[in-house]
Amino acid sequence: MGLSTHVLDTMHGCPAAGMEVALYSTDGDDNATLIKRLVLNHDGRTDAPLFDNASLRTGTYRLRFDVAGYFKARGVQLPEPNFLNQVSLDFGIAHTDQHYHVPLLVSPWSYSTYRGS
């Protein structure tokens, strides 16, 4: 299965359909190379894995989620500046034969993540 993600909107109790997500490969703290941008589907997921097992490589990566853009599009009144704007999750891939699932549970004021299955 490779690498996948999904986002749950904990404010509304639903998948974060329409949230924009970017995937980067990273090399150190400041060096990030964009791999792809996408928009989450009706189920708050990508339509296909971010990487399948054949293309998954060991290394460090970053998923960046446009949290403020998503909640603004849903009509949520956010303060300026927003408490959360972009949520970036940095993580490592050590075993390319395993599935890495990176879910995000998010509201305009908090988020949580874990390595899912």
Verbal overview:
With 117 residues, the protein is mainly beta. It has one domain (3-107): Immunoglobulin-like (Sandwich). It is built from 1 helix and 8 strands, in the order βββββαβββ. Strands 2-1-7-8 form a 4-stranded mixed sheet, with no helix packed on it. Strands 4-3-5-6 form a 4-stranded antiparallel sheet. A hairpin with a 5-residue loop joins strand 3 and strand 4. The longest helix has 7 residues, at 67-73.
Give the helix/strand layout:
Layout: E1 3-9, E2 14-15, E3 20-26, E4 32-39, E5 59-66, H1 67-73, E6 86-93, E7 100-106, E8 111-113
Parallel strand pairs: 1-7
Antiparallel strand pairs: 1-2, 3-4, 3-5, 5-6, 7-8
Which keywords apply here?
single chain; mainly beta; Immunoglobulin-like; four-stranded mixed beta sheet; four-stranded antiparallel beta sheet; 1 helix; 6% helix; globular
Quick overview of this protein structure:
Helices cover 6% and strands 43% of the residues. The protein has 117 residues and is mainly beta.
CATH fold-level assignment: Immunoglobulin-like
The helix tally amounts to: 1
CATH architecture: Sandwich
> What characteristic shape results from the CA principal axes?
globular
Structural class from helices and strands? mainly beta
The level of helicity is: under 10%
Q: Give helix and strand order, one letter per element, not per position.
A: EEEEEHEEE
Task: Describe the strand arrangement of the main beta sheet, using strand numbers.
Answer: 2-1-7-8
Q: How many β-strand stretches?
A: 8
Rg result: 14 Å
Please give the largest β-sheet.
4 strands, mixed
